[in-house]
Design goal:
five-stranded parallel sheet, globular, Rossmann fold, alpha/beta
């Protein structure tokens, strides 16, 4: 059964980016104080269950089936913020507010390091890149770090470097991890690493840790208004970072 779940999780990204449609049924929400993974059963501690993998895979497909805008091909690789966890319509998650033809590969609980989500299969950011960019991309936006704040920083850096290695030759924007109060200290460590390595690779790093956004009751995921605000700010900061006259934030 576990092998089947892993194959299903891998197929999620491929079929989603090919335009498959599946309505996700979301269940559970993160603990207010601990900021646990989306859909995680807190009665099982930090265990990532097969049921959780299946539900997050369904959510990932549902979001990836929504392609918005027109123009340059933009691919967003992210976590539950990108997949729209907690929204009645995942298609309203923040990437819809970016300029261009936007496709989304979001999977709750994931990041640059494999971490606890390895149970669900090869779905960390570097493992997803080849399938995600198979249809081509003019710009790749990376949105992660919240979940990585619970992993060893050496593992996170290894995964972050692997992601950038997979994306050599592409125009890449790295977003810092946004602020989640329950993990703020650890997130700062992840952001410091991403800023340093982004500079080393010569890719644009944009700080979004400064933002205070409307959150759901779990204090970890965005409301519909929060997604709109985040998406519009990110779109503006990306535009500024690509301008010769206006410097990038952060």
């Amino acid at each position: 059964m576990l092998t089947e779940v892993r194959h299903a999780a891998r197929a999620t990204i491929v079929s989603a980016l090919a335009g498959a449609v599946l309505v996700a049924t979301l269940a559970g929400c993160a603990n207010k104080d601990d900021g646990v993974l989306p859909g995680q059963d807190t009665s099982h501690g930090t265990e990532v269950t097969q049921d959780m993998c299946t539900r997050l895979a369904a959510e990932s497909i549902s979001r990836a089936s929504v392609v918005t805008g027109a123009g340059e091909r933009v691919v967003v690789i992210g976590d539950s913020w990108a997949s729209g966890f907690g929204l009645d319509d995942p298609g309203l998650s923040w990437p819809r507010y970016l300029d261009g033809e936007v496709r989304v590969s979001g999977f709750g609980g994931t990041g640059y390091a494999r971490g606890s989500m390895a149970t669900c299969g090869p779905i960390s950011f570097p493992e997803r890149v080849p399938d995600v960019i198979a249809q081509g991309a003019d710009l790749v936006v990376l949105e992660g770090g919240i979940n990585d704040s619970k992993s060893d920083i050496a593992d996170v850096e290894k995964g972050f470097r692997a992601t950038l290695d997979e994306l050599k030759g592409y125009d890449v924007i790295v977003l810092s991890s946004p602020r989640v109060n329950s993990r703020a200290k650890a997130i700062r460590v992840v952001n410091k690493m991403m800023r340093r390595v982004s500079a080393e690779y010569g890719v644009t790093y944009i700080n979004v840790f400064d933002l205070k956004l409307p959150m759901l009751a779990d204090n970890t995921h965005l409301t519909v208004a929060g997604h709109r605000q985040f998406g519009e700010i990110v779109a503006r900061r990306i535009a500024e970072s690509r301008s010769e006259t206006v410097p990038a934030h952060g």
